[in-house]
Amino acid sequence: MPGHGFRPVFHPAGHDHALRHALQDLRAGRWGEMARLLEETAATGHWDGWTRRTQVLATVAAGTDVVHAWRAEQPDSAAAAVMHGRVAVERAVRAHRAGHAGGRALEQEAWTACREAIERVPADPVPWIGLLALTALGARRPGAPHRVRPPAPMLPPGPWGLLAEAQRRDPYNREAYHRMLQFVYARSDGPLSEAVNYAQWAASGAPRGSALHVLPLYVRVERYRRDRGHEHALDLHWVAEDAVREAGRAMEDWFLFCAVPEASQLDLNHLAHALFGALRFPDAARVFEALGPYYTTAPWAHRTPRPADRTLAEEVFLRARARCLAD
Fold first, then answer.
1. Does residue 207 have a cis bond before it (omega within 30 degrees)?
2. What mean pLDDT comes out for the span 156-182?
3. How far apart (Å, rounded) are the C-alpha atoms in residues 184 and 197?
4. I want to staple 81 with a disulfide (CB 3.0 to 4.6 A). Which of 41, 110, 120, 284 is the partner?
5. Domains of the chain: which residue ranges?
């Protein structure tokens, strides 16, 4: 129930308390807990947790020299090599978004770091995911590399070989498919028909319990952001027949089968948002309950007149949560 005084919490670790502890150590300039966490994660043999944790750690480590210090202390560490690639990619992506003059040099550094990680740990999908992320930065450059024929009609040419390498190591890796989606977005500012086709293709081939069933919900939010603006909190975009169908499939083919504590907060927020928009309030309530105190600004920010204002995004989240949990 929507308790009085409930305040949502934004934290990249979410329910992952071990990751939270490692992030605290990392922010203090230490790498020991990160190394221990990744050693334990690698021992499980589950690439989904490895991918998620290395990605979150890199978002914090990219603003520090901690991974550099770790590699200096443990030059033979495979995990440190992977994190070096992660951090290099994160810095290149940030520089590209900010339009920094040195962005191309950072891209090359990241490319080299990922290739070195591939040589060090050939079975790891994460360095291949890093290469996928870098292709989106040059998606519109003439003669961009890694443009190959797509695996199905209605899909654009692109770095499908890189996606296949990640898929070979970890079938249906969530981040790999999201990185490919970012490439598709980057090809054009126009209609998102290619992205729609891609998300439907990815979801249709994914097994039950796969987070790829949430991909169409991301594309629907992006379509709204690009084409419809932010004038109305609820409009026909969210209750159209295909929108309701996409929300239902994500609920039935992913949420009901996934390990919720290990699920992406972004995926859970996109699903809660889609079910709320589709007026499926009881189903949305189950997702809000699974989220607990945690939330992400996206996609809620895109229902506000000022998406950069996190306070407005939080207000929309709280209203939606209260409405759904009131039933």
1. no
2. 97
3. 10
4. 120
5. 14-138+157-187, 191-327
For the segment(s) 14-138+157-187, the CATH number from 1.25.40, 1.10.3470, 1.25.10, 1.20.1070 is 1.25.40
pLDDT-derived band of residue 1, with 50, 70 and 90 as boundaries?
very low
Write the CB contacts of 204 (distance below 8 Å, at least 6 apart in sequence).
Answer: none
The CA distance from 198 to 180, in Å, is 9
126-137 vs 103-120: helix axis angle to the nearest 10? 160
CB 313 within 8 A of CB 297: yes
pLDDT for 191 beyond 90? no
User: What pLDDT, on a 0 to 100 scale, did the predictor assign at position 83?
Assistant: 98
Q: Quick one: tokens of 131? A: 């290469």
Which residue, among 69, 108, 103, 61, has the nearest Cα to 86 in the 3D structure?
61
Measure Cα distances from 232 to 38, 224, 272, 303 in Å: 44, 11, 18, 7
- Please report, for residues 112, 116, 178, the alpha-carbon distance to residue 215 in angstroms, rounded to integers and kept in the order given: 30, 30, 8
Chain centroid offset of residue 41 CA: 19
The yes-or-no verdict on residue 126 having pLDDT over 80 is yes
Contacts of 250 (CB under 8 A, 6+ apart): 213, 214, 216, 217, 270, 271, 274
Give the separation between CA 106 and CA 216, rounded to whole angstroms.
31
Nearest-angstrom CA–CA distance, 99 and 92: 10
What's the pLDDT score for residue 167?
98
Q: In this model, does residue 138 exceed pLDDT 90? A: no
Whole-number pLDDT of residue 3 = 47
